[in-house]
Amino acid sequence: MAIEASKIELSLGPVYFNWSPQKLEDFYDRIANEAPIARVHIGEIVCGKRSPLNAGALARSAERLRQAGKTVVWSGLIAPVNKRERGMIRDLIATGDEIEVNEMGGMIHLKGQPFTAGPFLNLYNENALALMARLGCTRWCARVELPLNSIRTMARALPTLGTELFGFGRLPLAHSGRCYHARQHGLTKDSCQYVCDRDPDGASIETLDGEPLLAYNGVQTLSHSLQVCSMNAKALSEAGVCALRLSPHDIDMVAVAEAFRDHLDGKLDSEAFVSRLVGYLPGWPISNGYLSGRAGREWVAI
Amino acid sequence: MLELVSPAGTPASLKAAVQAGADTVYCGLRDETNARNFPGLNFSATELAEGVDFAHRHGSRVLLAINTFARAGAGIAWRSAVDIAAQYGADAIVVADIAVLDYAAQTYPEMRLHLSVQAAAGTPEAIEFYASRFGVRRVVLPRTLSIPEIRTLKNEVAVEIEVFAFGGLCVMIEGKCDLSSFVTGRSPNLSGVCSPAECVTYSKDGNERSARLSGLTIQREQTGKPVGYPTICKGKFRDGNSVGHVFEDPVSLNTVELLPDLIDAGVTALKIEGRQRGKAYVEQVTREFRTAIDAVTSGTGTCDHAGLKSLAEGHRSTTGAFRKSWR
User: I need a labelling partner for B285 at 20 to 30 A (CA). Which of A3, A283, B85, B207 fits?
Assistant: First the structure.
């Protein structure tokens, strides 16, 4: 079942970075009021140590987004490490709100409730996706390294599921037990002093030739470049994609969302879209290699 | 009784590991279904059958690693690997993909299933999911847990625990790491390789030697010092004004001094990494660990494991996340 091109939605992924409660609330306030985004994924998914700091701000933001007519989806931790963190997904499921599962442990708390399979679950083929669908999965966001050919095969095999593609933002590439912000500041994870709050988009590191390559964000490692999906609505629809996911950064995300919307609505061609989008970025390179099955850091004309 | 699980990239390594005292040997088929999909490595179905026969005659077991994720639209290769394991009598399969687990559980209900580290199951809930849905009997834990955490986990799950004991050290949670595909286009989950050798080049510039991965320089040392293999998570990077190993130094894992603690924490099996290593390496590490395990379990104390130290990458080793301070 091809998605009608005009119906392709934008969704907002969870914030990966350690933003202050005030910054989070201001950010979601603008999203609620101004952004052409239908679904907003919210929740601390990177580091359970941060949760007590931002839980209140996220709950207030969720309410604010709902009042503005957005669909709010609570997104669970990628790698819970202690009892409190392990319980977080169970508590989210108990609220009855929409849920995105990012770790297989979440599955045992679901009693048939519909859920979104997040991009951190290892779903690489149509049989794995079909199994998740039998367990209540109604929507999924493809893992970032999956090529479009695989996504198309999976989406076509499960036409009743909503398929999201990681459309914008630094690519979440790896997750560790070790905190790199702590390590680079001479601390350990247990005594981290929350130094990850100094880098609202992650801290970029360069190769020995001086080329920026990756960015660390606490226990997470991201790409330095931002993935930009510049496929038009017709091409996305043909691949079975129903939504592009935009990953929040400390830039004008409303303007970013509007550029994507204009492109999906055919008001901008792909070239004009990319050049408008790049204008919102503080000199960051863009990439899209994963979509065509190449190295993720490459930019390939599609 | 702690089970020693040794790697075998070739039939010759399998025999060497068995003769050196491995309780169990793990290997993979010569295709993309296993996470050491390197040229010149791995087993044909016939070689697997011969390996199983040899191991069984010497009282050892063989595990078949089918531990990559099936490519969309191409699942037949992974299902066929499961069929081969069943047909040729592998004692268990080591699997990461829920689709492959589901196929094995449905088709061969009596087959023993081990959950690969690539499945990244590090919580009691995740392990319970795999155990209750697919009947998984053993989990290979992600290399992120400390020994007290392993003890707590063991008390909450009904499956056996296997941990990595020696060899290459993944710094990132395995099965959730796309660093290699971001740089080279190929990764453990997509193609069974990490930072593949065909993407690596070395060069000498004046009194320095460098190693590059897909053209990116991420190792550089003065002549005379060893240059590490340019795996991304062990690479050198510039972070502001400083240059160093941001993620991890070029070290490898060695837990030999932790054996009593691992036994006490309820670990069932110790896994030696390195199906890509040669027969002599496999033989030596297996023999050292056999001696160490026997010394600890018979109460004769520990011995000097100098031999293991010389086998570590760059002759430097770590106990990794088993000690909490690593984080």
Answer: B85
